[in-house]
Amino acid sequence: MEAAVGKRLVFHLGGYDIMPPQAVHRRFLRELGRFQSTWTVTAQASEPVTSEGEARWSIRTTGPNWQVATDYRLVCWDDIIAEASRRSGAWRIPQAILAFVDFLFGGALWGYLRTNWRYAGFFLYPFLLLAGLFWIALFAGVALGTMTGTSLVGIGAGAALFLVLLRWSGEHLFLDHLFDDWIFARHYIRGEHPTLTARLDAAARILCQLELNHDLDEILITGHSLGAVLAIDLLDRALRLNPKLGQGRTRVALLSIGSSIPKIALHRGATRFRAAIARVANAPSIFWGEYQALTDLMNFYKVDPVAGMGVDGKSPVLRQVRIKAMLDPAAYRVIKRNFFRVHCQFVSANDRRAAYDYFMLVCGPFAAEDQVRSRDGAASWIDASGALTDPPAVEAPAPGANSLRQALR
């Protein structure tokens, strides 16, 4: 029996997070250890090789009757995020307010309320927090000015308190980071990120070149959170270079996980991005799957990123997963109120075998399309010893695609 995938190429695009490649690699190694324990497999990853805009490492995963080699490529943009984080509050606050007004009058906020009110709350949180801090400082300043009988004292005290509250909330309540996220989103809609554009162009060229490597069984593009937006962008650029991408021997699949695609696409000004969604959705030989979770406030649960955006094209295969089912009860109790940690479970290893497992998707012996189409993911295709078993049929494979059962014969 042979694995459906013996050699895989992965392009991963992470979300809006200041996490340098070395830190991503350390997290990957840590989670790879959990993956091995959960699935009774052996996996080893090489040291990362970094260059401008990219970090890559290789993974070899083995079970009793299978082996997979994965070339993992991280498309880096942490330095772009870090540069924005170093800007002053005097720049950040006006830009954040401008972003709020833009997303309000661009129809995005109404779109969030219409499709997923929880995400609307996530959008409003930093701006409501800013307003709350302003009123606290204002009332304190007025009170102190009244007590001292000097308005200048009140104004100075209120301004000083506001600055202290801003600093504290930036460090402890993620206010600066969230503002930078929305400022970035506004600039992205307008195509104002030349450095990021150049990196996506370079990654698209590499993808097209490596697709010609007939030793590859699968090319997988994964995008987490806002990285799912960039994954669509990357694949769109690759399709413009090679409209026949995915029509050769190598399967090409896109996975948007915990994605923020509607965050951008629901803005009326995001015409360029909606055109990219349409191109990817209508590519005949590219499979697209999307994983969503109710407990993740930062994704759009039960929202179709194609039809729900008014885009004319084939919708991805949507899968709703339960993060609670992936983890030990004690581990879930620790993270369930940490919304950022819950969001990051999409790129972390599981304690339990479940329908969704990021590491099984990028390191395992089964094609991404087959795992997405299977109700149980890979859980029913691999036994307690980590060996492949004869899998059940998957749901409605795409026309022309080899089924998993055919691949394992």
Descriptive notes:
The chain has a domain at 80-187. The chain is built from 16 helices and 9 strands. It has helices spanning 21-39, 78-85, 89-105, 108-115, 117-148, 151-172, 175-189, 194-211, 227-241, 261-265, 271-281, 329-335, 339-344, 358-363, 368-373, 404-408, and strands at residues 7-13, 42-45, 49-51, 54-63, 66-75, 218-224, 251-257, 286-293, 317-321. Strands 1, 2, 3, 4, 5, 6, 7, 8 and 9 form a 9-stranded mixed sheet that branches. α4 (108-115) crosses α5 (117-148). The longest helix is centred in the first third of the chain and has 32 residues, at 117-148. It is globular and about 85 Å long.
Radius of gyration from CA coordinates: 23 Å
Distance between the termini: 6 Å
E-strand count: 9
- Unreliable stretches: 397-409
Gross morphology: globular
| Helix percentage range | 40-55%
Structural class: alpha/beta
What percentage of the residues does DSSP assign to strands (E)? 5-15%
Question: Number of helical segments?
Answer: 16
Mean pLDDT: 92
What is the chain-wise order of helices and strands? EHEEEEHHHHHHHEHEHHEEHHHHH
Biggest β-sheet, characterized? 9 strands, mixed
Quick tags:
409 residues; alpha/beta; nine-stranded mixed beta sheet; 16 helices; globular
Q: Helices, strands, pairings?
A:
Layout: E1 7-13, H1 21-39, E2 42-45, E3 49-51, E4 54-63, E5 66-75, H2 78-85, H3 89-105, H4 108-115, H5 117-148, H6 151-172, H7 175-189, H8 194-211, E6 218-224, H9 227-241, E7 251-257, H10 261-265, H11 271-281, E8 286-293, E9 317-321, H12 329-335, H13 339-344, H14 358-363, H15 368-373, H16 404-408
Parallel strand pairs: 1-5, 1-6, 6-7, 7-8, 8-9
Antiparallel strand pairs: 2-4, 3-4, 4-5
Helix pairs in contact: 3-7, 4-5, 5-6, 5-7, 8-9, 9-11
